[in-house]
Amino acid sequence: MKVFVLFVAIAVAAWQCHGSDHGHEYQIFPLRMKTGHGGHYIPEVSCQSWRLGVEAHNVIDWKTVPLDCEGYIGNYILGDQYRSDSKTVAREAYYYAKTLNITAKDIWVFDVDETTLSNLPYYADHGFGVEPYNATAFNEWVDLGEAPALPESQKLYKKLLSLGIKIVFLTGRPLEQKAVTVTNLKLAGYNKWEKIITKDTSIYHGKTAVTYKSTERKKLEEQGYKIIGNIGDQWSDILGTNTGDRTFKLPDPLYYIS
């Protein structure tokens, strides 16, 4: 038994790496799928099922990540699996885009938070979604304008531009944060877009994200644009009306927006 424990310790130590792609250094450990004897369960197994429910939109209207899942979600987001899942989505989006005959009015709608920019440095300091949402603290983070780019999304963004597709950023961030969002996007390497739309809270106060984004997409189409693609991390980014010819959902088990 001592030999086995030593072997496991060595294996885990060898697996450790650091998540520097997100702008901060964090220790990453492999996700444990199963352990124990006779079908004993550990939190990581139920957390994996919970995350699947979230991504499939079976688990809805949740407020926080389950407390027992903090470690699992942290390791997922910081590890290879999150990057791999995001890469799969971005790859399929690009393969689809390559089949299209692009016109001057074709646009691709991108969400911002957890789609083009990552707030992982903030969530890593706030329990990876376990803590209840704190609007004051989150807005202070956004106002710093330091959110790094999500690597796979940025690759897709650049590939779409190379195909001649115009980019529109449609974010739930309020008008008051438009300037810092523009600065942050440019700092993170997003330097070209057709439009960036932020939320006028005087119009959409009390409205769901689905209502807000559906209305703004309708306005784009009324201006003569054709939405050929639409990508976001929340289901509310891609549900509703005027969603575009095809939608793509990036993984995000950190929070839920209706």
Which descriptor suits the 3D outline?
globular
Helix content: 40-55%
Write down the CATH topology: Rossmann fold
Average of per-residue pLDDT values: 88
Going by CATH, the homologous superfamily would be: HAD superfamily/HAD-like
Task: Estimate what percentage of residues fall within beta strands.
Answer: 5-15%
Structurally, how many domains make up the residues?
1
Number of strands: 7
Structural class: alpha/beta
Tell me the series of helices and strands, N- to C-terminal.
HEEHHHEHHHEHEHHEHE
Name of the CATH class: Alpha Beta
Compute the CA-based radius of gyration.
20 Å
Architecture (CATH level 2) name = 3-Layer(aba) Sandwich
Described by strand count, sense and barrel closure, the largest sheet is:
5 strands, parallel
Distinct helical segment count: 11
Question: Widest sheet: strand order?
Answer: 5-4-3-6-7
Give the low-pLDDT segments.
Answer: 1-18, 33-40
Q: How far apart are the termini?
A: 50 Å
